[in-house]
Amino acid sequence: MADRKRLHYRIQGTVQGVGFRPFVYRLAREGGLGGWVSNTASGVELEVEGEREALLEFEGRLETDKPEHCFFAGLERLELPACGDSKFTIRRSDSNGSRRALVLPDLATCPECLREIFDRRNRRYRYPFTNCTHCGPRYSIIESIPYDRANTTMRGFPLCPHCLEEYNDPGDRRFHAQPLACPRCGPQLASWDEKGAVLEAGEDALQHAVRELSAGRIVAVKGLGGFQLLVDARNQEAVQSLRLRKHRDEKPFALMVATLEDALQLCEISEQESSLLTSPAAPIMLLPRKDKSSVAPGVAPHSPTLGLMLPYTPLHHLLMRELGFPVVATSGNLGEEPILIDEHDALAKLGRIADGFLVHNRPIARPVDDSVVRVLAGKPTLLRRARGYVPLPIRVTQPLDPVLAVGGQLKNCVALAEGRDIFLSQHIGDLTNTAAYERFVATVEDMERLHRITPRQLVCDAHPDYTSTRFAERYGLPLKAVQHHAAHVLGAMAEHGLREPVLGVSWDGTGFGEDRTIWGGEFLLVEHSRYERVAQLRPFPLPGGDRAVLDPRRSAYGLLHALRGPIGLEAPQPILRMLATGFNTPMTSSAGRLFDAVASLLHLSVYNSFEGQAAMQLEYAIRKDPSGAVYPLPLTGRTLDWGPLMEALLADRDAGVQTGVIALRFHRSLVEGIVTVARRMGVPRVVLAGGCFQNKWLIEHCHRRLSDEGFDVYWPQQTPPNDGGIALGQVWSTRCV
Ligand code: ZN
Ligand code: ZN
Ligand code: FE
Description:
It is built from 21 helices and 29 strands. It is of the alpha/beta class. It folds into 4 domains: 4-90, Alpha-Beta Plaits; 189-372, DHBP synthase, CATH 3.90.870.10; 374-498 and 724-736, Nucleotidyltransferase, domain 5; 507-722, ATPase, nucleotide binding domain (Nucleotidyltransferase, domain 5). It has an 11-stranded mixed β-sheet, sandwiched between helices. Strands 26-27-23-22-21-28-29 form a 7-stranded mixed β-sheet, sandwiched between helices. Strands 4-1-3-2-5 form a 5-stranded mixed β-sheet. A hairpin with a 5-residue loop joins strand 21 and strand 22. The longest helix is centred in the C-terminal third of the chain and has 23 residues, at 659-681. The protein starts with a strand and ends with a helix. The chain binds zinc ion (2 copies) and fe (iii) ion. Residues 484, 488, 508, 511, 690-691, 723 line the site of fe (iii) ion (FE). One zinc ion is lined by residues 110, 112-113, 131-132, 134-135.
């Protein structure tokens, strides 16, 4: 007995809801060990007692054989005197802890559960809420930690004897699966008309929705993290009526298809992309489209890509298999408001959009949109970070004091950090919108509670009028303001663990500059714990300021005015007056507005129905040009001067050179301009950040050219390059600048 020991482990990480306790149970039993395991607020604690050899083996396999989605963020071990314990048990959860537990994101239906819902002999045959310890809802149903059924929105569904048996059987795949359910005891479907009258229930409700969708009607479906609006993607008339009712002119809609094979019919999909599509996160992937004929033109007008996702809940699988055709699956919300999660709110707000509702009675704890991923230069890059990724932390190289970063204004996302974990919220939306602002406030509170972090400091954008900035000023804690474009760069530095010095190329639409003008084409050197603007795109006047975001002609007029003066400028009188007097006409170095101006001058875009549309048109217009011609973009002092570029571009246009060729030459020139600045600075690490780098051509060619010149190139991948990544950079500023 001299060789008997007892060990106490405290494990932090994603160890709840992944089948970790049953795994520990089996492992201990196999090794003949006594002891216990328990969920705590901070993760999992366990004790094992037995022979030395068996304990060694146990510890090794604890790390190597752990369940698939399990991730250790910390493991502490303490040796205790043996107490003669030979039985191993799973203890009830202990909620008296102050440390952090990592909550898991929602996970797409696993292959075993999928098999069950299509197996006639299985008791979960066609049950839309089937899940197990490998899959199912997590973040969207958790109300507080520890992660136990009583702390989820499943608390109102007592387990039937059969489910209870599975729940208590350590040998079962559903052992301690908190959202466990079956047709007898779990949530149920219902179909409602647009007034909320119940039409059908259960399988009949599903069939009703299938009939509606097949007939070209719009159905609002309560999914995993909120409502989605579904419509037959082949039916142009139906798609157009969704656009009309949703007031969404041209912004592309995402699609859902039943299987990967169906996806391959529509798009070119690499192995890497298909593994992302079928991953537990199951995001929307932006993919080059193959065949336009089976998808209505109104789905993604003028776009060579489609946003595609696969079913990620049993409900989606059942629906899609019945339908057998691609559907538009877009967020169930109004305009830029957050996605709706409650069926009664949805009825009130979506009643005029949807012809019918497919709902269920499992409450959704918080809205979680579908995430969007695009592979850029071989690297998966999140363009919207939500379902499947949130609330996993971004782990950084150096510890942080507790801090709350409130993000930007558009595509807002907040971040809460302590130690080496930075928790980013799901995508919240545009804070000028009241509903989004309310969600923003709720999210801050929700995150502080869920992650048990009490911030001691706040960080906001330097823009004095951002709603998030005003919120931060009222919060009552020390507040630090960080310049917008610096935050873009710092976010990528945090994510990639980059050491200084770094040259940041921070290109986007709009950000408040230190000189109180509008920045957006900046080159920032981050060094010695500070940053300095070392170069910028040549500024030009923007008649009407923010109004130019949706009206690219204003950028074109401003640019032409800067280039050639007022003589011969054919613009509407009020704009000419603004340009002459400077009234409501700020100066801007924005790269986004430069894209807008060029798209407008090439007649690619008359108006933007969403920010960045003109820039997208310019990217999509690119055609081959064997000549390899580049427009001159000289670096004069600290200014990258687009003057010569624009003269050459306009000459090409007036000589009748193809628009696609001009678009290509313009893009190439920008890449060479960036290379010019990088060479002058000679800093080995270059970060590309800001909304402009959602442009696949731009980022991939910058990457290639800068790499050829010997630079290491990085961009945000775990957060969007757009303002969805601002909060991460704000957090990192407390460490770095
Ligand atoms: Zn499963
Ligand atoms: Zn049951
Ligand atoms: Fe930005």
